[in-house]
UniProtKB/TrEMBL annotation:
Organism for this UniProt entry: Jatropha curcas (Barbados nut)
Taxonomy, superkingdom: Eukaryota
Name listed for the protein in its UniProt record: Ureidoglycolate hydrolase
GO molecular function: hydrolase activity, acting on carbon-nitrogen (but not peptide) bonds, in linear amidines; metal ion binding; ureidoglycolate hydrolase activity
PANTHER family for the chain: ALLANTOATE DEIMINASE-RELATED
Amino acid sequence: MSLLRLFHFYSLLLLSLYSISTTLAETNGDPTTKTMEDFSGYPIHEPFHSFSSASLSSSLSVDDHGLQKQIDELSSFSDTPAPSVTRVLYTEKDVLARRYIKNLMGLSGLSVREDAVGNIFGRWDGSEPELAAVATGSHIDAIPFSGKYDGVVGVLGAIEAINVLKRSGFKPKRSLEVISFTSEEPTRFGISCLGSRLLTGSKALAEALKNTFDSQNVSFVEAARSAGYAKDQDDLSSVFLKNGSYSAFLELHIEQGPILEAEGLSIGIVTAIAAPASIKVDFEGNGGHAGAVLMPNRNDAGLAAAELALAVEKHVLESGSIDTVGTVGILDLHPGAINSIPSKSHLEIDTRDIDEERRNGVIEKIKQSAITIAKNRGVKLSEFNIINQDPPALSDKSVIEAMEAASKELNLTHKLMISRAYHDSLFMARISPMGMLFIPCYRGYSHKPEEYASIEDIANGVKVLALTLSKLSLS
C-alpha cells in the first residue's frame, strides 16, 4: 500500500471513529457530554441553546452613545421647545415619531406591522415561531410640557435590547416582539392606555370610540384616519388579541418616584401595579352676591366641594394602608368671580390601590360623604359618576423570578416594589403573564421637563431586559 493510500485509509478510519463516538454520545449519554450539559444547563447538541445564561450575561453590550442619541432625536418631535416634550396622539409630531420608531425597528431587522389604531409591532422570529412570543414595549406619546424619558425608555430600550441579544449571538426559541402602544396618556381623548386597552379586548371602548371627540370637536375616527389608521371605523375589534397571544410581557420604565435613587439601587422589580378609579362629582347651590347674602343663608357649592376634598383625604388615610392614595386633581367653581358665591362646583378624583376591594371601599365612603355634605349644606349632588374602575394587576411569579435572576447574574442591586403609577402593563396582564422593570430617575421627577434618567441606569435596565427576554424566550 502506498504512503498516500495509507494516509487516506487512516483518515477515513479516524473520521468513522469520531462519527461513531459522537453518535454514541448523543444517543447513549456520553458521561463527559452529560457533565457538560448538567453544568451549562443547556443541551450540547441544541444549536440555539448552546450557551449558558451566565456566559450570555457577560457578553451583553449596550450601545450607550447610540441609545442616548435616539432618545434625544425622538424628543425633537415635539410641539413645545426643548427641554420639554409635547407629543399628542395622531398629531403631526406623533406621526413623525412613529415613523422614526418603525425605521429603527426595520434597521434592527424586525418585521414591522401596525394595527387599526396605530399600535406598532416589531418581531424577531424565533426558531419555533409557532410558539407564543415574548413581548416587551411601552409608549412614546407625551403629555404637554413633559420630559423625554417616560415611556420612551421602554420602547427605544426594547429595540436596543434586541440589538444587544443579536450582537451577543443569541438565537431565540420563542419569537421576541417589541410593541409601541398607542396613546398611553389620556391627553387628547381622555382615555388612558387606549392602545393596550383595545389590544386586550375592550369591546366597550371599541364601540365608544366611534362617538368620542376631543376638545376641538374632532372625532377619534377622524383623527385616526388623518394619521393613516382606522380606515374603517367598524374594524377596531380587529385590534383585539386573544388571551395567550404572548407567553410573557415585560415593560422597562423609569420609576417616576424617588425610591431607587434614594436607596442607591439599580433595578426595581415590580410585583404589582395599582389601578386607578376616576370619579366626577358636581354640586349645585344658589350662588349670590358675596356681600349681600349672609352666612346662615348660603348654599355654597364651593364649600361643599372643599369639604368633599378633605373627606377624600380622610377616607384614604383611614384605609390603614400606605398603598391607598387619593387625589382631587380638578376643582372648578362657577361663576369663578371673587365677589360671587359659587353656584356650581366640579371635582375630579383619582383614587388608587393595589387592593381592589380596599380601593372600592374608599370610593363608597367618598360617595356617602358627598351625599351627606350635599344634605347638610343644602346643595344638590347633581353628579357622582365613576368614570373607570380598573382592577389592579399582579406581576407573574415566573416573570419576577426571571427578572431577579437576570439582575443577580448582572451583579446589579435590585428590590421588589409596587408601581403606584399605572402603565400599559396593567392591561397586558389581562392576556399574558406580565412583569415590569424600573430604573432610577432624578428625584423621581416625571411628566415635566426636569425628568431625567442617566444613560448608565438606562443601559443597566436594557441589559436586565435583554437577559430576561432571553430566559423567557428559551422557556
